[in-house]
């Protein structure tokens, strides 16, 4: 009985950890643009179908030459900000205390070559912030991106957190921004390119040790149940033989 109780407690603990790993925020744009904006606070275009799962997404078409600085080597394409009431500001808050360590999304673009996407998460005043880079994203196909926003993230572009610290930035997130690094051949290009966004999630992914504990606890619980069943069934089998 003690063994069963111990295994049950371990399994419950592990499963509660897994439940906490569910994303605390997801925006799928099924109800429109959710007050997300383009780099200049211009509205995005909601598209009713055709997203990575066939449902709605948001889009923006523009040329790099139309940016405030046409010679820019990066562009912010999608913004969620507290002052816009983006997604009801459900993503904002103290990511450090919540244990947020991952932001995922789907993107698509029509540029003629793969583009590196960037992400920036900042305080409500838009400074300071933390910036991250993705691997190159191919054109014309929905691509899932995951940004590791933990303190030791290998994707972090500026380890100084714009002259502050991980805790200072992540304890008060009000802005999320996603954009692209512009290749030299496309800087100032007058050709319009289309950028699409869907399924933005802010989440807590369990550490490997927690995932291992869950597997170990589940295995131990299953073994205990099998042993219990075996101890019950053995006397019955002997009775039949005799």
TrEMBL record:
Residues covered by the Ice-binding protein C-terminal domain: 205-228
Q: Name one Pfam family in it.
A: PEP-CTERM
> Would you tell me the protein name for this molecule?
Ice-binding protein C-terminal domain-containing protein
Q: Where is the signal peptide?
A: 1-21
Source domain of life: Bacteria
Q: Does the keyword Lipid metabolism apply?
A: no
Residues annotated as coiled-coil are none
Q: Which UniProt keywords apply?
A: Signal
Q: What is the organism field in this record?
A: Lacipirellula limnantheis
């Amino acid at each position: 009985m003690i063994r069963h109780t111990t295994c049950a407690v371990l399994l419950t603990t592990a499963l509660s950890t897994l439940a906490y790993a569910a994303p605390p925020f997801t925006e799928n744009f099924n109800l429109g643009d959710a007050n997300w904006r383009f780099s200049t606070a211009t509205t995005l275009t909601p598209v009713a179908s055709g997203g990575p799962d066939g449902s709605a997404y948001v889009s923006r078409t523009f040329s790099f030459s139309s940016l405030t600085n046409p010679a820019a080597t990066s562009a912010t394409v999608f913004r969620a900000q507290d002052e816009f009431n983006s997604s009801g500001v459900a993503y904002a808050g103290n990511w450090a205390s919540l244990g947020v360590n991952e932001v995922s999304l789907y993107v698509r673009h029509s540029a003629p070559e793969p583009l590196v996407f960037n992400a920036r998460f900042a305080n409500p005043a838009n400074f300071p912030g933390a910036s991250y880079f993705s691997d190159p994203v191919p054109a014309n196909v929905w691509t899932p991106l995951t940004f590791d926003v933990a303190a030791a993230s290998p994707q972090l572009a500026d380890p100084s957190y714009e002259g502050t610290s991980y805790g200072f930035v992540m304890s008060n997130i009000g802005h999320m921004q996603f954009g692209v690094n512009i290749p030299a051949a496309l800087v100032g290009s007058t050709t319009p390119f289309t950028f699409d966004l869907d399924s933005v999630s802010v989440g807590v992914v369990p550490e490997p040790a927690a995932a291992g504990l869950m597997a170990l606890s589940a295995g131990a619980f299953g073994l205990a149940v099998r042993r219990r069943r075996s101890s019950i069934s053995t006397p019955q089998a002997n009775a039949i033989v005799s």
